[in-house]
Amino acid sequence: MPFRQLAGRVMSREAVGIGLEKRIMSLPSRVVASLKASIGDVVFGMEDGTVSIFGLVFGVAMSTNDPRAVLIAGATGAAAAAVSMMAGSYLDAESVRDARRARRNGPVDAAEAAAQVDTVAAALTRGGMAGADVAQVAEALKRAPRATLGLRSELDEADDGASPTSHAFWMFVSDLFAGFTPVLPFAFLPMDQARIVSLVLTTALLVALGVGRGIVGKRSIVRATAETLTIAASAAAAGVLVGRLLS
């Protein structure tokens, strides 16, 4: 085999190995980026899973002394809710993406383009750009309405940064994890102990969720936590009330 051909094959294999190594090394960073872009789905999924299944579990737990009945009802509800929320998140993200593409590639709406010019100009002004420079940018955008709409679509997609599949995945994981939190104690403990442990675990998760909402939203942690606990308590009360009425 000629030396040049042999060297070319060796270099090609080395290039493939380096490329594979880079992809493996970048996998954790891609996962973290996907999680950050889908943080809204994580918060929503955890809140929905915790609150809805917490209400279901305590409604059943206060109406029966059979932990298996609570476990079956809670696990079934948690799994069904997670799949449903995953599908809803995927369809929502896909619809938003399709709407952005249609707006970017479809007929130009002059009124919408003009409104977007005003929005961009206002954002640049708030960012500290000089008035004369803002005026020049606005004039340039007015002369190219399609570019204005395309810019807005690009900015929206840059703010998201996650595919519909990523949104659906994180929604499923967070909803399933949160939904099974109040359920699992009934799989391992007697009924009286399971009720207490489930309540403690769920409360701890809700407090952590409230703190996370406050940090992510840069709002009062106390208020965010109180809102989360109040919603969960209302769901539990509704579940217990319906369970008592039906039993």
Could you give a short description of this structure?
It contains ten helices and no strands. By secondary structure, the protein is an all-alpha fold.
Notes on the protein architecture:
The protein is 87% helix and 0% strand. With 247 residues, it is mostly helical. The N and C termini lie far apart (84 Å).
Topology:
Blueprint: H1 3-37, H2 39-61, H3 67-105, H4 110-126, H5 131-142, H6 145-160, H7 164-180, H8 185-188, H9 191-217, H10 221-246
Helix pairs in contact: 2-3, 2-7, 2-9, 2-10, 3-6, 3-7, 4-5, 4-6, 9-10
Main features:
247 residues; mainly alpha; disordered N terminus
Major beta-sheet overview: none
- Order of H and E elements: HHHHHHHHHH
**Got a strand count?**
0
Relative strand content? under 5%
Helix/strand/pairing category: mainly alpha
Shape descriptor:
elongated
Radius of gyration: 26 Å
Oligomeric status of the shown chains?
A: single chain
Low-pLDDT runs? 3-11
- Estimated helix fraction: over 70%
Determine the number of helices (DSSP H or I, runs of at least 4 residues).
Answer: 10
**Mean of residue pLDDT values:** 75
